[in-house]
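From the pipeline queue, job 12 of 40. The input is one protein chain; the requested action is below.

Action: predict structure.
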Amino acid sequence: MNSIKENILEIKKKISDLEIKSKRKKNSVTLLAVSKAQNINKIKDAYKYGQKDFGENYLQESINKINNLKDLNINWHFIGNIQSNKSRLIAENFSWVHSIDKISTLEKINNFRKNLDSNLNICIQINLDEENTKSGIKIDEVENFLEKASGFENINIRGLMAIPKYQDNNSEQYNSFMKIRILFDSLIQKGYKLDTLSIGMSADYESAISAGSTIVRIGTAIFGERKK
């Protein structure tokens, strides 16, 4: 089994190679290390080897990590489902939120962010395949959502996030990711100031980068299998 250092170096090399293959700008893809259910020492190891962005799904667990790692210059991303009553903790402790799909929740997060020096970066979660088991808004609801969100002063809507159905081969997975890329490009053409596509995980990030991903969310390939 490779070490965290070896895994990070290998993934970053693959990302760099894929940027070149896809004729992307160098360093146009951010590696987001998904550290949910991983202990603090593993996060410290990853940080030591150059990893600065970490994604968390479980709020209480993540707050404990954030408080214990305040001496590190980490960008914390919340990527899990958001309960409305947890909006304050999310607004006050994270740099990014990738899983917004309700205006009411976004409004609360915006209000709780007002006393901080910087705006919170937001990705809107899209349910590409309209799966009942996944959160997110429908593709045809995105523009209306963006219009409603435009009045919030303490957040920056940066882009879109999605977890499409897993496909058996890279070509089909690429086509699936291209659905959100096409949506993303169409919104930019209409004047929306978006720059972030949060798509791709350990099993499919290569297809996601080829389709235009700017943030890949990778946990298992860095830290290994999580303990049940």
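Job complete. The longest helix spans residues 170-189.
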